[in-house]
Amino acid sequence: MRLIQWTPQTLARQSSWNDIDREFDRMMSWAFGNDVPESSGAMTPAMDFVEEKDHFRVALDLPGLTKEDIEVTMHDGVLTVRGERKAETEEKQEGRLVRRERFRGTFERTMRLPKKVDANKIEATFRNGVLELNIPFAAEAQPIRLQLKD
After folding, report:
1. Which residue from 42, 43, 31, 40 is spatially nearest to 99, judged by alpha carbons?
2. What count of Cα atoms within 13 Å lies in the side-chain half-sphere of residue 72?
3. Whole-angstrom distance between the N-terminal and C-terminal Cα of the chain?
4. What pLDDT, on the 0 to 100 scale, is given for residue 32?
5. Is 58 in contact with 45 (CB distance < 8 Å)?
6. For the chain, which ranges sit under pLDDT 50?
C-alpha cells in the first residue's frame, strides 16, 4: 500500500477528479438515459414466489417472449423455466447502432420447491409477458387402519 502525504493541494486535486467523474456520468446519463450498467448479458427473469394456503403462486416477467419460446418442467420437486429470446432479424439500417442492451439468447431459472406438490395439477398461463404458475401442494398422506390377521 502506498502512502500519500496529505496536503490541502492533494485534497483539491482529488476533489477536481471527483467533479470530473460526476460531470462525465451526468453527460452519459443525459445522452443514453439512466440505465443499468451492462452485465454479462445473461438474462435472469424477475420472479415472485408466494406460498398460499394450498398452493404456490409463481410469476416470472418474460417480456418479448411468446409461449412457444418458453418451457416449464417439474422433476423431483425442482421447478425449471427455460426460454430463448431470438435475435430480431434486422433489415439494413441507415443508422449506426450505438448501444445494445436487450438480451438475446437462452436462459434458465431453477428452484427447488420447499414442499411436495402435485405436478399433474400445475396450471400455467402466459399473458402480457408474464408467466404465472399455480402449483398445488400434494395431498397429505392420511393414516389408514390395517386389519390384523390371525
Report:
1. 31
2. 18
3. 85
4. 47
5. no
6. 32-40
Scored b (16 or more CB within 10 A) or e, 60-80 reads bebeebeeeebebebeeeebe
Rounded Cα distance between 18 and 11, Å, is 11
Q: Is 2.30.22.10 the CATH number for 47-87+104-136?
A: no
Q: What local confidence, expressed as pLDDT, does residue 29 receive?
A: 55
- pLDDT at position 39: 40
Quote the CA–CA distance of 2 and 21 in Å, as a whole number: 23
**Phi, psi values for residue 35, rounded to 5°:** -140, 170
Give the per-residue pLDDT at 9. 59
